[in-house]
Design a protein that fits this description.
Strand order of the largest sheet of chain A: 1-2-4-3-7-11-9-10-12
CATH architecture of the largest domain in chain A: 3-Layer(aba) Sandwich
Distance between the termini of chain A: 36 Å
Structural class of chain A: alpha/beta
Order of helices and strands of chain A: EEEHEHEEHHHEEEHEHEHEEEEEEEE
Number of domains of chain A: 2
Oligomer: homotetramer
CATH topology of the largest domain in chain A: Aminopeptidase
CATH superfamily of the largest domain in chain A: Zn peptidases
Number of strands of chain A: 19
Strand content of chain A: 25-35%
Shape of chain A: globular
Chain lengths: 368, 368, 368, 368
Amino acid sequence: MISTSHLEVGQQPSGEPARVPVITVEGQPGGPRVYLQANVHGAEIQGNAVLERFLALCRARPPKGHITLVPLANPIGINQKSGEFTLGRFDPISGENWNRQYHFNNRDIEAFCHTHLHLSDTEVTDAFRQQLTAQLAARLDSPWGVKTGQHMALRLQQMAVEADIVLDLHTGPISARHLYVPEYARARAHRFNIPLNIVMPSDFGGAMDEAAFSPWWQLSQQFAELGRTFPVQVDAFTLELGSQEKLDIAQAERDAAGIARYLEVMGCWPEGTHNVAPETQYACALEHYRALYSPCAGQIEYLAPLGQPVPAGAPVVRIWHYDRLGQDTPLFTEVSLPCDAVPVLHFASANAQQGTELYKFLTHTEAL
Amino acid sequence: MISTSHLEVGQQPSGEPARVPVITVEGQPGGPRVYLQANVHGAEIQGNAVLERFLALCRARPPKGHITLVPLANPIGINQKSGEFTLGRFDPISGENWNRQYHFNNRDIEAFCHTHLHLSDTEVTDAFRQQLTAQLAARLDSPWGVKTGQHMALRLQQMAVEADIVLDLHTGPISARHLYVPEYARARAHRFNIPLNIVMPSDFGGAMDEAAFSPWWQLSQQFAELGRTFPVQVDAFTLELGSQEKLDIAQAERDAAGIARYLEVMGCWPEGTHNVAPETQYACALEHYRALYSPCAGQIEYLAPLGQPVPAGAPVVRIWHYDRLGQDTPLFTEVSLPCDAVPVLHFASANAQQGTELYKFLTHTEAL
Amino acid sequence: MISTSHLEVGQQPSGEPARVPVITVEGQPGGPRVYLQANVHGAEIQGNAVLERFLALCRARPPKGHITLVPLANPIGINQKSGEFTLGRFDPISGENWNRQYHFNNRDIEAFCHTHLHLSDTEVTDAFRQQLTAQLAARLDSPWGVKTGQHMALRLQQMAVEADIVLDLHTGPISARHLYVPEYARARAHRFNIPLNIVMPSDFGGAMDEAAFSPWWQLSQQFAELGRTFPVQVDAFTLELGSQEKLDIAQAERDAAGIARYLEVMGCWPEGTHNVAPETQYACALEHYRALYSPCAGQIEYLAPLGQPVPAGAPVVRIWHYDRLGQDTPLFTEVSLPCDAVPVLHFASANAQQGTELYKFLTHTEAL
Amino acid sequence: MISTSHLEVGQQPSGEPARVPVITVEGQPGGPRVYLQANVHGAEIQGNAVLERFLALCRARPPKGHITLVPLANPIGINQKSGEFTLGRFDPISGENWNRQYHFNNRDIEAFCHTHLHLSDTEVTDAFRQQLTAQLAARLDSPWGVKTGQHMALRLQQMAVEADIVLDLHTGPISARHLYVPEYARARAHRFNIPLNIVMPSDFGGAMDEAAFSPWWQLSQQFAELGRTFPVQVDAFTLELGSQEKLDIAQAERDAAGIARYLEVMGCWPEGTHNVAPETQYACALEHYRALYSPCAGQIEYLAPLGQPVPAGAPVVRIWHYDRLGQDTPLFTEVSLPCDAVPVLHFASANAQQGTELYKFLTHTEAL
């Protein structure tokens, strides 16, 4: 029922392959195809522990459906050190974010809707998935080659494109747990039991979650223009499960249960199979998810605890200017916000340039 | 006639400012406003030498117009070392390319054209420049702060927005000299005497050249839709003047003369003031400017000399697999191209991953 | 009584100087000369806050003696980012530790003792300090130049060499507070109120504390061989005040008080002027301060809380092998120690190679 | 006669092994055991090509003896990118040079000489080699683990310790070919046909060549003190075969022939089997091999061609200060040397801090 293999996603200069583990849970028939991956950003370790705890849940109560787990999904990023830390957010050669290189070209979607307008939902779904798969194969097959990060992304995407549900496990720098929720899937998001939620539009920007759902959402929109109701066939979420460079097994167990609770709704288990103490949930629209950039350089005292609402005007950081020690000028600058907010994450270092992204906040929060 | 000052473009964690030198040549009246900058990518040193040689030309034969020179335009990028090399193409924190953070929002352009439809060209130009300036000031003034790279870019852009001509001096990694030419300015491009030319559309993608000309090109397009002919008021080019991490004073002198020759057309000097031995010029459209990504990892022997046409099917790189030494499998992979091409630049290292960008080529070349 | 200035310790590629703030507290006569510096390793921010709190103590109760404070002592290291973190432990070009480049050459010490054997302690002290000062000046004056890190070190050392007491404020990666104690100064070390203490021999290895005390200790040894008792004239300690990349103002206040308590013994204040709740103190010899290197690669769960004794054989880390997920091989490796130990610090990342330094421990602990 | 295998020298965080290829040429009996490795510094590619060409020589004319070739000897360093370049000289976590972590402890050497004083040369050699081997095994077996770089070094050293001849193939940054020659092996060094030679003492400093010969040299010295003549049993050289990040197959062929010519003297082939056009050779003692550190920051024009003598007082670099453009202060600083010299290598970047190592020179040159 559980089988494992390895998939080559790249090759390192020394000639060694860059391979990812692929674990397959073949559950009872009747459930969805699910794809979960973790650690596409090299320093974001925690998702691996969540996958391990989630596999334990699958062992304890075998699910319906077909589940694929890919921990350590970016070996190149994981193996790149810089000082003690893992330089894992972007390709060290080009600076490109590892999670912005997935592929989708919507050029043919209008033609597709016209030619498939009168086929059944299942036929449409199969044909469209085939088209997406063909697109990935064609991209990988370019006579000009494929860039390192995109090659890796495409190899992962070839697995994800088969799935009805795609969950991409990340973390922030120093971060509370938060969730990116595509607007159309909002009703199901609370099941993950993640306290902070960002509701996002359904456009494609290169990330895994968008690459998974946006084609289907665009298909749905395009059919709607032709007068046909065609539901979005794929759910996809990015889960940010705490801080980078950390492993918290107890929290991993709770988040694995949250994922299982969400998958109950999707048919993997009967409702109520998994439980976890509910947390207060906040949400806001992506446009209201705001970064605070440092107005000056200095050494940072982070004042606003993550996950706890902070009112407009209250100081959220104190920026120390130790270069002015002993002088009469003020030794620190305090920064506050123009509106109420909930801090989601903050910078991982106490050492900031002018313009460093110090914090990110939910603002104009609403119920999930 | 020549004056100098410094402009603060950021602040380093230690509290020290990041400042750029600003040199102003106040020429005789009647000429254009010209803005030249160099070294926005930290490793791309050569442009500084070109500015130095260009200033010598201005001293030898005072130009008409107002010329601003900004060497060492990105002190944060210039000061960031990683091993012996300068990690200067992107922000070491975020991976964002320093030359993709300039600002332009075309939201108001349609309304602007309607309200300014019946004003004179000069009035339109003044009003539009004012609007661009206001946009930059508003962006800098955000209560949420401005990201390090964008803050620096905006401060440079505040100078560039005043100019009729904007030249941004870069280099490639290991590179022949090449030029990015906006389609509408194609007729003047040959004056720079740069052998390889990429003709690009006039959209905005965040680079300095685009930030300088694209608003004016979009304005021109918008007016055209309303039936008014309004010429693009600003010329902007990105010059790639050789290889990074190198200083070649003799070549800098020739490229300074090429710039002066171009500026003759724009009114800074009488035609024929400056001369330089003409070079064979190739051009292609941006969509035909192609990267070759390594099909496998290995140690790279670059076979195709830069600037010299290579036919389809001829090997351009030999990728050595020294991990197979002593085995019966082939010790190297040779790669060729599906079409004729002119090599523009190649990767700076002999050590490549699968997917490393090995070369860039002009293909489907045409006359400039 | 308090004055400030700046000292140039280097020059950045952009031409900007690398300068350090120098704050001088001119106290009443009769006290020692004291030199304190912080942040020579760029990510080790906390010492700056301790200096700030210490200056407040000096303001509240003016000390005897002459005190020099240098926060942000390594602007080049502080300004070098790599990802979100500060790559501040070593020169990014050469890999050399910023705190191993101080200078002392003991070649002339035997001759010095012979020629100064019959002078008074004060005369010897003055002459030897003069010789050390001359050695630094000669090194800085080399016609071959001086390496970046050594140039900076020498400039700081020129201030420190004037002092009777030198305190160099550092932090570990993720770290409990600990102190490097030269054997000869052991009796005074408990005054800092730092829980974990490493008693070290008095040789010179290139660090600031050694550069400050080792010449005087060697002088004392050399005189002893000639039958003269000459006390070590300089006290020097390296204080490791918690974790890198963090600012904890409350703890800084307690550690500033600990420093003041130590300086009471040295004559800056009357005994009992400053107080702080005493902490349990452990000590061991440097040879018993042991690093644990990871026996294999993997994702690390740090099990042993810092500062709390752990018995031989108890697991201190669990190394997860998520690449084996779904397989029958063990999913983790646990590591324990061959002897009782007190964990002092651990690696800052949960992502480790084989051979990564996971923890450092006091072993064979004894009373301070 | 030629066989290949792989040796694991470490493990990467993703769980993938770090393995090196090991090629064995089993020649006819009667020749020495030879060990050659390349690319211990990750950016120093050229040695791999030399090993490939050398293997071709072995195939063309089978040698006497047993030859082991290890290309790509440091997969961790080779795979570590930082920008386009390979950050391969030091461990990115600790800054430690990969070629300073070999092991030798001379503690027992005096006792060994006493107990083996009256054994034959062969018996002594075998016993001493056994002791060195045991030392490596004990080090690898520490209950506290072994640091990443030392673990890799020890695994390589376990192969090298078996050899009579050890050649470690490196390159400089931008560099002429040069050779480190242990004083005792000076007479044979010219056979490599390398133009620039540094004659070094025979102490141990952690590099592979020293780790290979220094124990045997110390043994020889120790026996000499006891009145026995015991020749140094191992020859070891570090060859620096040009510039990093470059592959030059034609030069590799010439250097492979140089190595073969040296090995003729050692018994692998009859004298005169291999030939190569002789080059002018310079040598100096290690203490006269001098680095020039930049007296100020700026952009560097390297004036002195590598390998060509430059007289005292002649400018070797021009340091441009583009931050002073348009001002009256001098735009550049020229640096010359206090004595005649031959430039061996220069810095790989045109962007320098104060104190950057700009050049290295042979001075006080003599015949090899």
